[in-house]
Design goal:
The chain has 323 residues and is α/β, with parallel strands linked by helices. It folds into two domains: 11-143 and 264-285, Rossmann fold (3-Layer(aba) Sandwich), CATH 3.40.50; 146-261 and 294-322, Rossmann fold. It is built from twelve helices and twelve strands. It has helices at residues 3-28, 42-53, 76-85, 95-105, 146-157, 174-186, 200-211, 223-226, 229-238, 263-278, 300-305, 312-317; strands at 32-37, 63-68, 90-94, 111-115, 136-140, 163-169, 190-196, 216-219, 243-245, 257-261, 294-299, 320-322. The strands form two sheets. A seven-stranded mixed β-sheet has the order 7-6-8-9-10-11-12, with helices on both faces. Strands 2-1-3-4-5 form a five-stranded parallel β-sheet, sandwiched between helices. α2 (42-53) links the parallel β1 and β2 (63-68). α3 crosses α4 (95-105). The relative contact order is 0.13.
Length: 323
Amino acid sequence: MRRREFISLLGGSAAAWPLAAHAEEKTDDLPSIGILHSVPNENFEALTEGLREARYIDGQNVLLEKRFYGTGTDRIEAFAKELVALKCKVIFASAPYAIQAALKMTNRIPIVGVDLESDPISNGWAQNLARPGGNLTGLFLDLPELGGKQIELLREVAPRLSHLAVLWDATVGMVQFRATELAAGAAKLTLQSLPMRRVEDIKSGFEEAARKQSDGLVVLSSPLIFNQLSQIADLALSSRLPTISIFNSFPKVGGLMAYGPNLASMNKQAAGYISRILSGANPGELPIERPSKFELLINLKTAKALGLTVPMLLLQLADEVIE
């Protein structure tokens, strides 16, 4: 190589070094958003879409520190500790396990939660809904009476329902279960509890429902249950068990019915909280919201396979009918 070429090459490289270093420093200076989520599913995508719409782009003006804890809970606290150590400006926590872990690790970093199972007031996470007062805000369902509405809808499709099974997560779902139990009693139904703590309990729960001759099933909410909706839909169909879930994705994977909030929409709304906090808002002064819109979805193909006729009025009320 000629001397002039070598000097030119060396000069070009040297000129690039400070630019690269500057770019790295610029990236390091970006505010971090910690994300504690189960798996990269449609709800996670809705969150990131909401952030993009609020003009927060990963790698451009923020860094998304993503931690996916999967179907187990053994790594959640370690992940929450990592996000705190990274000095994230705000932490998004999906579901009760993640919220509990984040709150355990910090009372200073703002936390935005989305949770279908917990009452943030009775749990001591917030002073009240209008002014939470601490470092947690977000969107919480906390509507235990929803179980009564699900029973009512299930009876519209299966009018001979008398023995109702309830599949629920014993680690987070006691409030929902107790409310559903009361609603079943008021409806003069015999209730069979199918508590679960791990994925393997789902199949054994359906076997128990068959032994007790249950003729309908309400599926309550939890992150573990959400991640197994396809399995639950398959087992319900093979057991010929009319089933309703809170998750609107349930009929889309073969379940009979769903009635509940749009979870993806709730995750997208959470991005608005994150945006406001990054702009300087105090999480303790941001009101905790509850979903105001609930969707009814019905899978007609599954109804036909179960030998059920869905009333026309119910079909007209449905937000989506899957054929």
